[in-house]
Amino acid sequence: MLLEVRDLHVEFHTRDGVVKAVNGVSYGVEAGETLAVLGESGSGKSVTAQAVMGILDMPPGRITRGKVVFRGRDLLGLREDERRRVRGAEMAMIFQDALSSLNPVLTVGDQLGEMFTVHRGMSRRDARAKAVELMDRVRIPAAWERVRQYPHQFSGGMRQRIMIAMALALEPALIIADEPTTALDVTVQAQVMELLAELRREYRMGLVLITHDLGVVADVADRIAVMYAGRIVESAPVHDIYKAPAHPYTRGLLDSIPRLDHKGRELYAIKGLPPHLTHVPPGCAFHPRCPLARDVCRTQEPPLYEVSPTRGSACHFWTECLDG
Amino acid sequence: MAEPAETVLEAGNLVKHYPLTRGVVLRKQVGAVKAVDGVDFRLGRGETLGIVGESGCGKSTVAKMLVNLERPTAGSIRYKGEDITRLSGRALKAVRRNIQMVFQDPYTSLNPRMTVGDIVGEPYDIHPEVAPKGDRRRRVQELLDVVGLNPEHINRYPHQFSGGQRQRIGIARGLALRPEVIVADEPVSALDVSVQAQVINLMDRLQKEFDLAYVFIAHDLSIVRHISDRVGVMYLGRIVETGTDTEIYDHPTHPYTQALLSAVPVPDPEARERRERIILSGDVPSPTNVPSGCRFRTRCWKARERCAREVPVLAVPEPFAADGGPAAHPSACHFAAEKQVVP
Amino acid sequence: MSDQPYDPERAVAATPAGGTVDVSLDAAETLQQGPNGPDGPAEERERPRSLWSDAWRDLRRNPVFIVSALVIAFLVLISLWPSAIASGSPLACDLSKARQGSQAGHPFGFDGQGCDVYTRTVYGARTSVAVGVLATLGVAVLGSVLGALAGFFGGVWDAVLSRVTDVFFAIPVVLGGLVLLSVITSSTIWPVIGFIVLLGWPQIFRISRGAVITAKQNDYVQAARALGASNARLVLRHIAPNAVAPVIVVATIALGTYISLEATLSYLGVGLKPPSVSWGIDISAASPYIRNAPHALLWPSGALAVTVLAFIMLGDAVRDALDPKLR
After folding, report:
1. Is residue C292 pLDDT above 70, yes or no?
2. Are residues C227 and B123, on separate chains, in Cβ contact within 8 Å?
3. 8 Å CB contact of B225 and A189
4. Domain for residue B44, yes or no?
5. CB contact under 8 A, A16 and C1
């Protein structure tokens, strides 16, 4: 296992109480595998990723329990300078907003080259050559010319490619991509996702794709972890989950999206709203919105039941859900 | 296209150019951003016209012109036959009652300093003839009830509601004057997936209840298909293909529509092997510097010399005109050909 | 809440603990974007909440605010009723006591003219506060009205007004005061106030113009416009309430600097003139005797410093409280 997150708990301390953003999340990624972490805003999917990357703001955040095992080491036990060496070189992150993640006053060549001068001790000239090579890699046309340009001179899709190039620079073993295409148009999104998939195959990297888009997930993921209110509610290989979801939340999400391939009638809508993280309902966090909820759901928090050796569902009545 | 309903809104060769000027004292026009460059459509009573396109294609500018927030550079917008683009004062105000807008961002479209009652009731302050003063509170509460909010929350502030609930408030404000047309600019794209469905269902229900006509503008092709009777696909300021939802989604003939549809991820992992992806090269050209001839030719795999020379008109392509099948719908391409891209 | 059954309908409609739900979740999700994250959710929960009530809640807990507000309250009280704590007259001087130190009944001693420093310092507060408050009012009204005009209508209005402010910004304040005020002989506070307003309004103008332009771009202004709202309605109901906060903050901070500007001008002899009582005049008069009678300089200077600092601190605290990004 390349990366294994075990029973991670993250809290935020605020003036008005403790926000439990992540409540016992566990997932694993193998080398060369794509894990999609699916969830709506507030599900804790990004906070988990930040804790894995070690870029969580602490305070106000605090990791109260859990392990992040990466290539056999528990990252949470490392000193900050050791962690810094892991970041960038061994695991890298791609953000949603490429424009604000790039430094506006440096050329993209300087920013890409910096990865090599700082981490690899290369000369500026060699680093520049490497930068051009990387930009070629992510298929930016006329790379040798554009390497001298500034981020604002690139379009949104091209900037996201530069972000990917930066993440790839040191050939990390794991990439975490947080909504990498949400800000892009569909035709550009398709280009970027295709590029990402191809590079992942080529370098045999592990990819953690954080997204809310069920379509993107179906397109690229090998495995899916669905998050709700800071917990993983279902985890399964991608084909299983779309064929027959084993958690009512996953089923609700799948039923609520309009389809391109047929018109359909009224959409299924999950009733109510996601809970406030300072007031997560007792028992199963999803029970107030769940069509299958019974008394036991209000009092007992469901564990992640084993549906099959590769599949888990945190629903007391997963068999019922699976049968539709 | 069943029985042609009475036309409520009609756009004719709608154009919006924003001049680019240089100099402070002696202003000189050095060019123009051609945001919208000749858009035609008609909208029947109770019908939904979906307009799809990528960012920068001019779809939001069309929306703003329809509700008179922007004056078109040229062209006409007819509400029941009357051109509303040159109206002002009292006449404009009267027309505004019938065409209302729902905005994209539920966080910036409601004034944070006003209560929900004030926001939804504001249309009555501006058009006092619609509702007598004593009746307003009741009407506002009724509206809140109609959009699925608790009428007792009339004194709350917008921040006390979630995104989906705020969008309902925005819809209630749009309904207050009982308009015939609602222009919705990306009304659900800022919302979470599970909440999107709630708002779309609400809009569906209200359409039937109040016989509303929608102009539904979005970049999400799946949502547009779900809600629209007819669809127009926009690229760089123009509609390149238009037709019923089946015509556009199952029998697209314009290469841009085909590329757009093939790029949409389908929530079905089985489809990923079967699907053919058309990956377009490059980016959308700048609207200040529109390519000659067909404006899609710089990214089109079918482009030939003719495309640079001749502007394709939006009409039923000849090869399909005779058969009258689902491919026989307006498409602005010299080499229009049917291609099924949606699995 | 955990002891009662969780009812989704109420969660949608009422959220028992009050307030909203998924707005705050967004905040928790996007924590990397700044320090505003974790406080977001909590803030949402107070029920009748507005920017002002929130700001007030923040301010009440801020020691900086409490201290500066107490100092300012004290200043306002003594400028309204100076005789309550100083029995004598600031103009009753006895040359024979000139430059004497502290003694019974005269805790701060006497200045070069034999006037009681304590009494003069107390009465000086009245001038300072009056100049500060009136000048700030003038600046705020003129600057924000013109700024709103420029920001809302844009075009020629904006171009002309903005160039005019550039001209005023180019005038060095002290030099301008020396030139303009030296020709005026009136011994009232009005010329000084007029001068401060004249040179001060461009600062508020810029703030107000910027705030109006920002507020104008909000969708809710567009929404009201689409409903057919008049310009007056747009400005008064939708733009002004959302643009006034930064103006108030800057004006509060400016108030302190105006007080010190008055003292500077008086020190240079072009501001207030005797028989007015002002800290600036006293500082000016006492400075030749700094070696043998430092107390005559120290007390009015100290009072001035504390006053200016109090207003600047108050402005800072208000700014922090009104800035939603810091929550």
Report:
1. yes
2. yes
3. no
4. yes
5. no
Structure tokens at B319: 């090869």
Distance CA B320, CA B323 (A): 6
Whether the per-residue pLDDT at C18 is higher than 70: the answer is no
The CATH number assigned to the domain with range C63-326 reads: 1.10.3720.10
Residues in chain C: 327
Q: Which residues of A touch B (CB under 8 A)?
A: 40-41, 141, 155, 157-158, 185-191, 193-194, 212-219, 221, 238-239, 242, 252-254, 256-261, 263-264, 266-270, 273-274
- Name subunits touching C (3+ CB pairs < 8 A): A, B
Between chains, do A276 and C2 touch, taking CB under 8 Å as contact?
A: no
A-chain CB neighbours of B264 within 8 Å are 186, 215, 260
**For A230, nearest residue in chain C (alpha carbons):** C29
β-bridge mates for residue A14, sequence order: A17
State the chains in contact with A (3 or more Cβ–Cβ pairs under 8 Å).
Answer: B, C
Global pTM value: 0.79
Whole-angstrom distance, CA of residue A313 vs CA of residue A235 = 7
Beta pairing partners, B42: B10
Place of tokens 């810091």: C326
Q: In sequence order, what DSSP letters do the residues of B156-189 get, joined into one string?
A: --GGGS-HHHHHHHHHHHHHTT--SEEEEESTTT
Contact of A184 with A192, CB cutoff 8 Å: yes
- Tell whether B102 is covered by a domain: yes
Domain boundaries, chain A: 3-228, 245-324
ipTM of the complex: 0.81
Residue range of the domain that includes B54: 7-20+33-251
Q: Which residues contact C67 (CB under 8 A, 6 or more apart)?
A: C310, C313
Task: Pick the residue from chain B with its C-alpha nearest to C225.
Answer: B69
Can the peptide bond before residue A60 be classed as cis, meaning omega within 30 degrees of 0? yes
Nearest to A267 among B200, B268, B280 (CB): B200
Exposure b/e, B126-136, CB count within 10 A at least 16 = b = bbeeebeeeeb
Q: Give the up-direction half-sphere exposure of residue B96: CA atoms within 13 A in the CB hemisphere.
A: 26
> Who among A141, A158, A269 is closest to B197 (CB)?
A269
C218, C223, C228 member nearest B127 (Cβ): C228
Give residue-wise pLDDT tens across range B172-213. 999 999 999 999 998 988 888 888 888 999 999 999 999 999
Distance from CA of B306 to the nearest CA of A (A): 25
DSSP B283-296: -PPPTTSPPSSSTT
Report the CATH number that the domain containing residue B214 is assigned in CATH. 3.40.50.300
B264 within some domain: no
pLDDT digits (tens, 9 = 90+) for B40-88: 999 999 999 999 988 888 888 999 999 988 889 999 999 988 898 888 8
pLDDT at A219: 85
Q: Is residue B115 one of the residues assigned to a domain? A: yes
- Span C192-227, pLDDT tens digits: 899 999 988 999 999 999 999 988 888 889 888 888
- Write down the CATH number for the domain with range A3-228: 3.40.50.300
Residues 6+ away with beta carbon under 8 Å from A232: A25, A26, A27, A225, A226, A304, A312, A314
Phi and psi at residue C180, to the nearest 5°? -70, -45
Assigned token pair, A98: 């490429």
CA angle, residues B67, B231, A271, in degrees to nearest 5: 80
> How far B195 CA lies from chain C's nearest CA (Å)?
10
**Strand (E) or helix (H) holding A82:** helix A80-86
Distance, CA of B35 to CA of C107 (rounded, Å): 76
What residue of A is the nearest CA neighbor of C17? A279
Residues of chain C with C-beta less than 8 angstroms from the C-beta of A229: none
How many domains are there within chain B?
1
Average pLDDT, chain A: 86
